[in-house]
Amino acid sequence: MGSVKRFILVIAIIFIGVSLCACAGRSANARIYVSLDNMPDTLDPQVASSDSELMIARNIYEGLTRQDENGDIVKAACKDYQFENLTYTFTLRDDIKWSNGKKIVADDFVFGIKRALLPETRAPFARLLFAIKGAPEVNAGRADAGALGISAPDSKTVKITLSYDDEEFLRVLSMPVSMPCKEDFFYESTGKYGLERDYILSCGSYKVGKWNKTDFGIRLLKNDEYTGSFKPKNAAVYIAKDKEKSVVEKLNSGDADMALLSAKYLPKVDSGKIKLTSVQNICWVLSLGGDFSQNVRQALCMCTSSESYKKNLPAGFTAADSIYPGVLSKNTGTDVAFARVYDSVTARSLISAELKNFKNKKFPQTTLVYSQSEPMRTVITLIVGDWQQNLSTFINIKSEDKSLEGELKTHSLPLSVFPVKADSTLGEYLYKFGVDYKGDAVAAANKAAGVYNLLPVAFEDTTVGYRDNLSGVNISATGGYVDFSFVVKK
């Protein structure tokens, strides 16, 4: 090989090496900018409930188990576990530490789970731990925390005894409600635990470097004390809420690398610059109250067809044929569709038979209340229009800011439409409907619907939008949507 060719080859190799090092350096030192509509009120994992709280908790804490990039449950703080006679025995890794450098011990996991189940904690996802022996009684205040089937025989062993075999239990242990909590640090926080940066002790891939509540900003920094398998591929994640711009404006302009997008934002996304990953985890339902007779409820259901509105559903919405959004499909199977049939003729006859029971023999003036949502307003207007055309009912509609989820059990309003989110297990989702899930998804759905008390209307996606300079963005419906440790920025 001539000297000139050798010189060119050497220069090429050096150039490639420098380029690769530069790329690796940019990724390792990258800052990911995330825009959210709502910032957290607390980063206490036991009481976290909002999307932003759960997302951050997922990244600054690590449980006995954790979700990998595919959503599968893998060992995390534990290096091994056994399950025998309804008892899990977890052996902790030798090198796990809190973000302040102190060792994490088995008692930290025991205290965290016990605290989640104490009634005074009011943990919103405490029910996920009810498979633990004694958990329902402790949570209801009928038993002391000492009655729980959880203990630490030594500093590296956590034993959890269940009252029944819960196939989702290892997944539950990966969720924020199951995170460890250092008891002395908690009590030394004097009521401020999880509410300020100085009163947060992390054990996950990241730690909280800054939390400015006035300017709605949180900085997550790489946790140098973290020794697990989920080390971040970036240096930091900056999370903020803009006072002037919407999350989609921030994303389109490049001021944010990633944003959590509700369906209302999807039509505004710049498809040339933004990638989307979604999970169908919300079901909008129509609740028909007990003020109406069974015949009236049946008539209204029989005059509600997705054919009248499905063409008007915007991006991120699809017509619902069951109460189970797609994220639960692996748990429910395929035969869960409602068997109700559109039949306006029968519906009219049912209403006619009821007219004698109404004042002036006319359908009473009624208002349908719905959770505020511009995309759903059109759908609700079309449904009410069908009722008016086919049944001569005149029904007003009114939006409501507060949650209407209580209607799933009470059906106290004459008519209401609202979203129900599948944010954990199938059993916890059905509990929102007042149904105790016993393994039969079809029977559970029919019980939830009652005697024409409930009708699924539409499914809604939760979407993460991100710039095309990011990779490794995966979305999971349980435990906080995105694990930032996988995210790479070019």
What does this structure look like?
- The strands form 4 sheets. Strands 1, 8, 9, 10, 11, 12, 13, 14, 15, 16 and 17 form an 11-stranded mixed β-sheet that branches. The chain has a 4-stranded antiparallel β-sheet with strand order 4-5-7-6, covered by helices on one side.
- It has 490 residues and is an alpha+beta fold.
- The protein folds into 2 domains: 235 residues, Periplasmic binding protein-like II (D-Maltodextrin-Binding Protein, domain 2), CATH 3.40.190; 186 residues, Dipeptide-binding Protein, Domain 3 (Dipeptide-binding Protein, domain 3).
- 44% of the residues are buried.
- The N terminus is likely disordered.
- It starts with a helix and ends with a strand.
- A hairpin with a 2-residue loop joins β4 and β5.
Class derived from helix and strand content: alpha+beta
Mean pLDDT: 91
Q: What is the rounded distance between the termini?
A: 37 Å
Q: Could you name the CATH homologous superfamily of the largest domain?
A: Periplasmic binding protein-like II
Name the helicity range. 25-40%
CATH topology of the largest domain: D-Maltodextrin-Binding Protein, domain 2
CATH C-level label of the largest domain? Alpha Beta
